[in-house]
Design brief:
The protein has about 140 residues and is mainly α. It has 6 helices and no strands.
Amino acid sequence: MRERDFQALLDRFGPDLSRWRDAALRRSAEALLTSSVEARAMLARASRLAALIDAATTPPLPPVARIVERATARPQVPVRRPTLPTRPAWLGLGRWHAVAFASCLVVGVLIGIRSAHHPDNAYALYNVADGSDIGDLHE
């Protein structure tokens, strides 16, 4: 490979020899670089030019992107938020469990009221629990 050919390949494929598609051209260019000072100077100029072009074509970041980039540059420390006090376990059992609890509470209150009004009646608790005597609570 001659230096004139090397310059044409630098202009076509750029200074990064690993990106050249043809392996034979890469090997020829590497052999020329080991033997020619002028070829190494051409590669250095092409590398500087490519760096300048890359710097010129990269637009500056908008302010929001700069803030995000700066904020995410360091590892983030998780913020511990206080937790709410936990509810008793029976409150989180679901809707049917709450209905069952409320109905047991109502039956217990009715039995208590009935037995307070009729302490001598042996069947008072049974009648209220059975539902047959709930209407007579105001006697």
